Amino acid sequence: MACSIGCRGDSKVTRVLFCGPYFPASTIYTKEYLQSYPFIEVDEVGLEQVPDVIQN
């Protein structure tokens, strides 16, 4: 699904992961703040999906 430091074409992408719906205001604020940084993406997934998102 996603990489912690992943690929988007030729550039590297850093991903910020929010696990679950526990901090909705923080998730929204972080997504809005980081919109001008195309190399940083914010993901919000349920706790049961975390192992699928974090790849070791």
Entry summary:
The protein has two helices and three strands, in the order ββαβα.
Strand arrangement across the biggest beta sheet = 1-2-3
| Uncertain ranges | 1-5
Number of strands: 3
Q: Quickly count the helices.
A: 2
Give the class from helix and strand content and strand pairing.
alpha+beta
How many separate domains make up the residues? 1
Rg over CA atoms, rounded to whole Å, is 12 Å
- Shape descriptor reads flat
Largest sheet: 3 strands, mixed
Order of helices and strands: EEHEH
Q: Tell me the β content.
A: 25-35%
Amino- and carboxy-terminal Cα gap: 13 Å
Q: Could you estimate the helical fraction of the residues in percent? A: 25-40%
Q: Provide the residue-averaged pLDDT.
A: 83
Textual characterization of the structure:
This protein has helices at residues 24-33, 50-53; strands spanning 5-8, 11-19, 40-45. It is α+β, with helices and mostly antiparallel strands. It has one domain (5-53). It has a three-stranded mixed β-sheet with strand order 1-2-3. Strand 1 (5-8) and strand 2 form a beta hairpin. The model is unreliable at 1-5 (pLDDT under 50).
